[in-house]
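Catalogue entry: protein

Sequence with per-residue tokens
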Amino acid sequence: MKKRTIIIIAIAVAVLATAFMLLKPQKVDAEKISVETAKAELGTVSKTVTATGTLEAITTVEVGTQVSGIIENIYVDFNSYVKRNQLIAQIDTTNLVAQLEQSQASLDNAKAELDYQQANYNRLAPLNDKNLISQSDFDQTVYNLDKAKANYNSALAQHKRNEINLNYAFIHSPIDGIVLNRAVEEGQTVAASFNTPTLFTIANDLTQMRVEADVDEADIGQVKEGQRVEFTVDAYPDDIFEGEVTEVRLEPTVTSNVVTYTITISAPNPDFKLMPGMTAESEIYVQERKDILVVPSKALRFNPDRKLLLSYMSSQPKTEMTESGQMPKDNPLMQGTGNNQTSEQALVWVKKDSVIRAQAVEIGLDNDIHAEILSGLNRGDEVVLSMEEKDKAEVERTNGNLLMPGSRRGGAAGPGGGG
């Protein structure tokens, strides 16, 4: 019985010893541990909303004609610069001049009839006052005068209309600008009976353009007037153009159940690089802070592996680590470790000399690339981004480089050293 008890105890001790050896954290050679760090520096953190739009001139006018006829002369072409009221085309005026002459004759005839009826009235009015003529004769005289006046006014209006139509045959530019499109040729007949045909398209000022871009409904709430915008065009992929949001339109556009809103972006174009119709890929800076203390956002997401951290710290001349691989319990920086962090509080690991320790920080704007540090760090503090175990090949390569001639570890003299 005693022998059996001893055997059972021995087996239990062996099991416990094996479990202890298996569960005990195995240290890693410190030379096999790679630690990536970055310094807290002054920088810029921004959040952007992307939008795709089309470049266009701020003011574009389509010039047409209000009279029909044959295009007799064209005085401008594509890309011509024009001034306000400059003659740019002329329609054949033969029929219009004939209509004007005909209306002039009708007007002269109406004027003669009016003068006759006015003279007749002036002669009979005194006789009517003395009751020397019948009332019916005088009423006929008044009627004839009123009718002559109406005929004259009608002839005058028709004559003025023909004068205006004749002036319409001479087409002038309504604005200063550049001709983007010429839709007619000399000798072509244009008909303005039902609608106004477009002859030219003129852009006012191509040094000041705009982008009309569509923003998704999920992002439109962040877009405000005055926000800075950077955009690129395919024609100049290496150039970045700047502008700002000038208008956020309220009317939605629905395409395949996708709701977007149109915004306008100013696009200064002093070098005339930008052209109407180009596609602009825009980034709208909805939030932006400059000259602030920032660290890579990767530092906020870093959680060290316990075994690697213990192995690294145990190999350093200074350490705040206990043998169990934990920071001292009285270190207040260990409070809140792990994922129990709010949107304003976070934890980073700071490397100072040979010590890596946790540091609570307050964060501001974070765009997943860089994060603003409001408190907890100073400029120049070194934060840990990653801690990884190198693979065997990388360790051998590193050691081989260190043992090559010229390295201090190999003992060889550098260039110019003694032998």
